[in-house]
Amino acid sequence: MKASIHTELAFEEAIEAVLFKSGYVNGDNASYNKEFCVDEYWLFQFLKNSQPLKWQKSEAIHRADTATKLLQRLHKELDSRGALDVIRNGFTDNGVTYDMAYFKPETALNPDTDISYNKNILSVTRQLKYSKKNENSLDMVLFVNGLPVATVELKNQFTSQNNQHAKRQFIEDRDPRELLFQPNKRTLVHFAVDTDEVFITTKIDNEKTIFLPFNLGYENGAGNPPNPNGYKTAYLWEYVWQKDSWLDIIGKFVHVQKEEYKQKGTTFKKEKIIFPRYHQLDAVRKLWADAREKGPGQHYLIQHSAGSGKSNSIAWLAYRLFSLHNALDEKVFNSVIVITDRKVLDKQLQDTIYQFEHKQGVVALL
């Protein structure tokens, strides 16, 4: 029986239905491994279907213990290198290197890359009971090839709750020591969503948790415009979480910002996951699309207010333009020059772009 539109359950169902139409599959609590925080069923489906010869090599080594050994190895790699690096660059077990995701190629010159891309498995699990300690559940968790990448708390205003209540759930009810919530150990971002607005955080830290808006903006202000076809926040699941968009964000936007600081003579390293806010995502994609169509020689102006992420927008755009090809699969730009007036920003831009393009000489300080 379909839930009433006025319930939180109906909100979940509406989102899930759109995701299924876009190619997502259904995740299940039964296949979620709480110890390693992965969906075992879809993880092994992906590895077997996308890399059958590698799986055969692993079976020759581990025999009946293949799944267990690979899961243990994957866990160690996620713990030491971080989820983002493993998703982008895979992991190696006994000399067999597995890819953990395939990203859309910049050109259509190699048809095999499209075949690999279509092997990706995006899944959504509702009411995921994630903990070994209690029966707490998350409204939704998004997975890529069995690895959890985003958690979602949903609130429907018709139930007298909104995104503020979703934020409080993350702050008060989600233990940051849980593996699922440890930054870059598993999930990359957390969404607090109601029918009107969206907020995100990349670090759950009890009362220190900081949420940022992930909204379209309305009449030169905050929030979202009216949506005659449904919820104001429908762009989230109808656009942002769509397969091509979501994999593009994970592959070419999300990055880990690393900082060093000294305290009492000791050097400490701090890492922070950077997830694009909507205005950054929108600006970079619009400029990329226009440059792809019109080629070099155009002029653009991006207005950013203080603290809205100018440096990250610059880094994302520089990388996207450097790898840009037109409809004829011709490279549009031979080089991208970024002029800044701060050395700190220079270093930050280099580090950010290098996470996407691991080639020496791609980024140079002039």
Topology:
Elements: H1 8-21, E1 25-26, E2 32-33, E3 38-39, H2 40-50, H3 52-62, H4 66-81, H5 83-89, E4 91-93, E5 96-98, H6 111-117, E6 122-129, E7 137-144, E8 147-154, H7 163-173, E9 189-193, E10 198-201, E11 212-213, H8 235-240, H9 243-252, E12 255-263, E13 266-274, H10 278-294, H11 310-322, H12 343-356
Helix pairs in contact: 2-3, 4-5, 10-11, 11-12
Tell me briefly what this model is.
The protein is of the alpha+beta class and 366 residues long. 37% of the residues lie in helices and 18% in strands.
What does this molecule look like?
The radius of gyration is 21 Å and the shape is globular. α4 crosses α5, α10 runs parallel beside α11 and α11 packs across α12. The protein is of the alpha+beta class. It has 2 domains: 237 residues, no CATH class; 91 residues, no CATH class.
Which characteristics define this entry?
single chain; alpha+beta; 12 helices; 13 strands; globular
The overall number of domains is 2
Order of helices and strands: HEEEHHHHEEHEEEHEEEHHEEHHH
Mean residue pLDDT: 91
How far is the N terminus from the C terminus? 64 Å
Helical segment tally? Answer: 12
Number of strands: 13
Strand content: 15-25%
Strand order across the biggest sheet?
1-6-7-8-9-10-11
The outline comes out as: globular
